[in-house]
Amino acid sequence: MSSNLDQLYRQVIMDHYKNPRNKGQLADDAVTINMNNPTCGDRIQLHLKVDDGKISDAKFDGEGCSISLASASMMTQTVKGLSVEDAVKLAHVFYNMMLGKDYDDTSFDLGDIEALQGVSKFPARIKCATLAWKAMEKGVGHQEEE
């Protein structure tokens, strides 16, 4: 059963990599965050629109490995419509999952994000998976300061 689940997860990751959701840019009033992972060359430009404490839109552009870009696709899809507070909480749930720690999968519908849980077995790839999430946290932190 485990190998079937691994195969399914790989298919979900490759689908997000080959058919990214929310790829592109947002208008001028969006917050733009540029981040990269110098270890492997992944880079992402994340665009967030935050209205009244909620992430109303999110898009990304960049280049990198399948894990990095699939994670960005999943993250933008999942945080749209969430409050900034919930988006940050979800990021911490995701980080715990990446570190192989217990994580709360009842507060949020993780959906496709759970396909990334296998990355925790490959410590060198965790930074790839968390890059977009770190950019989102930085972006909403920047938004709150203004």
TrEMBL record:
GO molecular function: iron ion binding; iron-sulfur cluster binding
Cross-referenced InterPro entries: NIF_FeS_clus_asmbl_NifU_N (IPR002871)
Boundaries of every NIF system FeS cluster assembly NifU N-terminal domain copy: 9-128
Lineage: superkingdom: Bacteria
BP GO terms, sorted: iron-sulfur cluster assembly
Family: Belongs to the NifU family.
Protein name per UniProt: SUF system NifU family Fe-S cluster assembly protein
Source species of the chain: Fictibacillus marinisediminis
